[in-house]
Amino acid sequence: MNRYSIGIDIGSSSAKTVVMDEKKRIVRRLLQPTGWSSADTAAQIRTQLEAEGIDLSQARVVATGYGRISVPYADKCVTEITCHARGACYIHGLQDLKVIDIGGQDTKIILVRDGMVSDFLMNDKCSAGTGRFLEIMANTLAVRPQELCGLAAEGGGTSISSMCTVFAESEVTSLIGRGEKRENIAYAVVDSIVQKVAGQYTRVSGEDAQPCLTGGLCGVEYLRGSISQAIGREIIAAPDGRYAGAIGAALNAASVR
Amino acid sequence: MTKLQTREIPLPDDFVSYPEARKNAFLKLKKLKEEGRNVIGIFCAYTPYEIIDAAGAVPVSLCAVGEENIPFAETDLPKNLCPLIKASYGIAIKDRCPFFYFSDMIMGETTCDGKKKMYELMDRKLKHTHVFNLPNSQNAAFAEEMWRQEVVNAARDIEDFFGVEITEDKLKKAIKLRNRERKAMMDFFETGKLKPSPISGYEMVSVSSSNDYAFDLEKKIAFLEKRTGELKDLYETQLKGKPSRPRIIVTGCPSHGVIDKLIRRIEDLGADIVCFDSCNGAKEKRDTVDENMDPYTAIAQKYLRINCSVMSPNEGRYKVLGELIDDYQADGVIELVLVACHTFAIEAASIKEFVTKEKNIPYLEITTDYSASDQGQIDTRLGAFIEMLE
Fold it and tell me: What residues does B106 pair with on adjacent strands?
């Protein structure tokens, strides 16, 4: 009877679930929007897992993310910082990393040494440089966030000066109004995120650690490439990067007795 | 919240919470005023208690807390300012502070920019505020002489204001009594050196910030000695030999305004605060006033040694913090920087380097104000930091 280890990362935008078997291999991944109730999302996840024949009473569950306290069936809650660190190490097979996690409403830089969190810097007080910034600007340009990045790759020559998401949105509206090309506006939006994240990156020590990108945007090559250019190091990314938190939580669950 | 070895650090049966202690203190102060005692309101560790004691007056701390007091201050003070300064001014200007109400005069120092400009307003609008000119540097050639002269000036002002005499004899007596109080506080704080610690950070900061013990030092000393005995017994009978939770030193700005959102949270989330390296904490109380020299010189020297970030350079802080990390066997350091506190905010980078590279333990900076709105962000940082120490 397989004793599963389950990691549930309830973020502000989306909830990620990873199920590992006893050999710590990922056997199942779930992804769904968090919506406005983390507790409801946690209940939905439970229902779905049980429908797939995963007996939660036999499994060990660790919850992480902003909604971690809303998972009543979790054995433990662990912060997303610790989980992203572990998850990133698992994904890339490395023990020394500098994790860049661009989340829905926060961005984290986590320095990992020997597989353990050594230092971290969070931006969770301001939506600039987070997924939310991208979402809001994409909305203003009437495209989806992924499409905005595609447009940005073809643009250039424009920048947004506002630090604040709300004022930046006004700036984008003005740029649209005076006929600026969408590609150039998109370029400016992504550049704004890149500068913010790169700035945060340099404020954390560990110049020698390998940077890696996790979080929902880690699959966007244009973004990965732009941030790499800004920090002067090639950033590695993997498709499982958005599950880094849930993977770390599942690994943590494996040690729960 | 990790379900780690949660340990309820027991508070004494007669423990008085910070808000209750405040209430008790009001009533005691009211009685003293009715008996005709003079009261001087103070804000800062740099204010020498001994000259107030020697004048037969009672020093009360006006260093206020409370998010609710801040809007009152913001009619006169800018929003982008330290919450401690705003709360202190706000509670006074709105006449919501019985300690301020009962104070006959106020004493402050030119510590940080915010404080020194706030004192101007306080003096102009509220009550006579004597402001000491604190040197910017402890090392400068003129510093000790200047500070000694400022202490003398303050003593003369108190004498004029109340029509009393501060004699050398009274000063020497005050110094002796205050040193005894310092020793009692130190013995109390030093129970935190035991591993595992029998005392909680919550209890330490509640006691050190409380005005409840301000009015009768002999009673305070007796209380502290009794409590220290109880804590040592608790260690011997129940804690000795047991594993310890991660041990934290809290440094930086005064923390009594964030007792619930930060201090208690650290302990709820699974770590023990064993020492406070801040102006009310161990590092001040362990430094006594020399009883064998001219009292004004002795007083000036001790108080000038306080390593607040307003001093530049502030080398003493590193030496003391290093010693505390060793003596208290700390596993990590958490620095509280209040919003808009430039000096601690800038010094934090150097403290981080010192703690992580020379003392080789983790460091976390928390910048916050008195509002409840960032509790989630604070919990995530504290949680992650404590997970690093486990």
Answer: B41, B129
